[in-house]
Recover the amino acids of this structure.
């Protein structure tokens, strides 16, 4: 309970701490510090060195009551100084703004029989206004031990300022200040500095080198309030509070026994205020016996309270800077973590792999243990776990939550779609004791506002989940859910494209009498679209076989419909028409007559028919704008098959020229698409027809059709260094075999 001061109780002494400061106030404190000593002080104004103010010692020193006057130029008050050069020195200090100091200077004071000789250490210092302009000269002279004491005090004060400028630790600055005052004070004094917390409601130990530890511990954290000792009251009132006798002062009712045990009887406390008036702490001077302060004591308290304020504000600024840098670094670290995790998650095209990577990223960055569960067919399936040891990971993997269990955290999060965090083990059965679990954070994996899975982070030992960790984990779970959704869509599209592509290609190669047949197909990119390359081999009547290889302009669904149109038209009309030229013309009519919505792109095609003979294979083919096929003879010589023909699907009039050739045993016909010859390496150079010819010619003697395919694909892969191709590649090889 706060106590009201009784009538006659101690009241704040001195001026209010929140005062306007300036040159005049600085002079006032100097007069207070030096006024009762034998040190002389005078404040001169203007170029005439008008004596504005001086202490008693100054007037006593210069010669008695007849010279105790102000408002006169110093040269008029003390004409003897002119001949000794002191006025010239004053002129120089006023003109240059540079101080002048003399040691053991001889001075004749007075004139005639009353003159006396004296020796002084003195200094002339320029007086500056708030704009830094010289407004006068300050004179300080020393003639006694008390002045030397003041110089020591000034030196200590300068040391403290230098420490503050070097950003020495606040505790060191405050401790050094307290010890300096205690050493320099003429009477025993015990100094204490208390620091205010951020809201200014409590005071905490800052420095008190000579007070007992039990006393410092007892007052650490006292409230800033009326009647709470000298310091609590000074902090509350924001002005000095002087208690001359602790035994009788009501402010000390709650601390009197503590003060008696510590051996202190008086306490003068001055609030330490920031430039904006905010409370920084208190500066207190304790005495062993009841004692009232002199003006010099109050000036000393104000001076060092201001110094302490400078040190504390500097410390707060440094703390704020360090905190800001730490927050900035933490933000950068979080961003780097999320970027790294996002890159790893989005680079995977399998949802299971994404969830495994999610668990790995959570441990140990966010938690000691992690488990990821998803809903499949109305049941919960544990997809991934991460732990510091294999034993812990096995224990975690062995536990499967129950989807509809009300006491299971995973089930609740899956049902609600909201996160759940607790500083205890999860509810429901699990290996929590064996894993040493002390808390958990369960996050939903959401797709279109529906939770399809959950991420459970488990803490162990003293670790707990704070707001920062929860926010970071939620963002990571959101990104993982998006990556998993994209992966599922990719898998679905890839499967659809693969199945549709498979329907447009031969599921199995037929057994062709007298021929060895091999094919190759590799779609461009990641296989999400239907490729434009196709091939087919099918039987005709009378032992003949038809074959074709083509390239449809474009990709995707339109390319698929065009491919189907070409293949199905050829298969339908080939048994009814006499030769390849007629079949290709029928295909061209089908392409030019198709509806506009079914595509308008052109098609390149090689269509041919073969029939086994006792000496090999008779082949007749038509080339409609396609890359020319290659003929590999038994001597491994490669020739281009010259057959002229225009693209299909351009117009109704088609001009193609049939070409006939005979493949003897072990000779081959190689058909390919331009995705092979136009394959590029990183410098942009193409594989081209020359390298294709060299790859075909480089097969061993009497090669099979598959050996030619293998030689060709190896050469392309080596040339591109395994890079992803940007166009579909297809090949069809027909090799004549020995007659049976």
């Amino acid at each position: 309970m706060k106590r009201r001061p009784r009538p006659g109780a101690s009241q704040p002494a001195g001026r209010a701490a929140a005062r306007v400061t300036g040159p005049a106030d600085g002079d006032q404190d100097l007069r207070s510090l030096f006024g009762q000593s034998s040190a002389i002080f005078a404040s001169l104004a203007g170029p005439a060195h008008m004596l504005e103010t001086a202490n008693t010692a100054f007037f006593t020193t210069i010669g008695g009551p007849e010279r105790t006057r102000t408002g006169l130029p110093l040269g008029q008050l003390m004409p003897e100084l002119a001949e000794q050069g002191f006025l010239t020195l004053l002129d120089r200090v006023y003109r240059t703004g540079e101080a002048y100091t003399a040691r053991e200077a001889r001075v004749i004071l007075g004139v005639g029989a009353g003159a006396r000789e004296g020796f002084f250490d003195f200094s002339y210092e320029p007086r500056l206004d708030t704009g830094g302009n010289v407004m006068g000269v300050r004179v300080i002279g020393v003639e006694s031990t008390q002045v030397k004491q003041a110089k020591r005090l000034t030196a200590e004060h300068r040391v403290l300022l230098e420490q503050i400028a070097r950003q020495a630790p606040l505790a060191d600055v405050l401790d050094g200040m307290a010890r300096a005052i205690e050493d320099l004070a003429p009477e025993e004094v015990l100094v204490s500095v208390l620091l205010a917390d951020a809201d200014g409601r409590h005071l905490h130990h800052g420095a008190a080198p000579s007070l007992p530890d039990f006393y410092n511990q007892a007052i650490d954290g006292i409230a800033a309030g009326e009647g709470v000792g000298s310091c609590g009251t000074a902090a509350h009132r924001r002005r000095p509070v002087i208690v001359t006798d602790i035994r009788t002062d009501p402010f000390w009712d709650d601390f009197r026994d503590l003060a008696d045990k510590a051996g202190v009887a008086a306490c003068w406390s001055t609030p330490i205020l920031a430039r904006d008036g905010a409370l920084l702490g208190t500066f207190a001077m304790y005495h062993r016996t009841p004692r009232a302060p002199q003006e010099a004591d109050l000036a000393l308290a104000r001076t060092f309270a201001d110094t302490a304020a400078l040190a504390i504000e500097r410390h707060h600024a440094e703390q704020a800077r360090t905190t800001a840098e730490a927050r900035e670094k933490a933000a950068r670290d979080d961003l780097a973590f999320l970027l790294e995790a996002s890159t790893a998650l989005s680079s995977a095209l399998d949802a299971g792999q994404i969830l495994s990577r999610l668990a790995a990223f959570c441990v140990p960055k966010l938690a000691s243990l992690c488990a990821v569960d998803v809903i499949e067919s109305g049941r919960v399936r544990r997809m991934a776990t991460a732990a510091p040891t294999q034993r812990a990971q096995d224990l975690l993997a062995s536990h499967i939550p129950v989807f509809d269990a009300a006491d299971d955290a995973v089930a609740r999060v899956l049902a609600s779609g909201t996160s759940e965090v607790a500083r205890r083990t999860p509810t429901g059965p699990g290996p929590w004791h064996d894993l040493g679990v002390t808390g958990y954070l369960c996050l939903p994996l959401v797709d279109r506002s529906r939770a399809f899975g959950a991420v459970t982070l488990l803490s162990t030992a003293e670790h707990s989940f704070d707001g920062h960790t929860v926010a970071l984990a939620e963002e990571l779970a959101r990104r993982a859910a998006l990556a998993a959704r994209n992966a599922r869509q990719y898998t679905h599209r890839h499967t659809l494209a693969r199945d549709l592509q498979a329907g447009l290609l031969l599921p199995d190669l037929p057994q062709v009498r007298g021929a060895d047949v091999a094919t190759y197909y590799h779609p461009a990119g990641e296989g999400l679209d239907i490729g434009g390359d196709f091939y087919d081999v099918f039987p005709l009547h009378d032992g003949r076989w038809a074959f074709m290889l083509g390239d449809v302009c474009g990709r995707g669904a339109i390319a698929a419909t065009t491919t189907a149109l070409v293949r199905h038209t050829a298969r339908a009309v080939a048994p009814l028409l006499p030769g390849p030229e007629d079949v290709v013309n029928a295909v061209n009519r089908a392409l030019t007559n198709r509806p506009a919505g079914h595509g308008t792109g052109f098609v390149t095609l090689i269509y041919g028919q073969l029939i086994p003979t006792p000496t090999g294979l008779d082949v007749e083919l038509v080339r409609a704008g396609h890359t020319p096929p290659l003929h590999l003879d038994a001597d491994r010589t490669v020739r281009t098959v010259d057959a002229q023909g225009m693209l299909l699907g351009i117009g109704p009039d088609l001009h193609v020229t049939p070409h006939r050739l005979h493949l003897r045993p072990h000779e081959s016909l190689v058909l390919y698409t331009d995705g092979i010859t136009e394959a590029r390496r990183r410098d942009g150079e193409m594989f081209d027809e020359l390298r294709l010819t060299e790859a075909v010619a480089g097969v061993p003697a009497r090669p099979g059709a598959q050996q030619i395919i293998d030689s060709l694909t190896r050469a392309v892969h080596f040339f591109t260094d395994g890079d992803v191709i940007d166009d579909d590649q297809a090949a069809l090889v027909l090799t004549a075999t020995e007659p049976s």
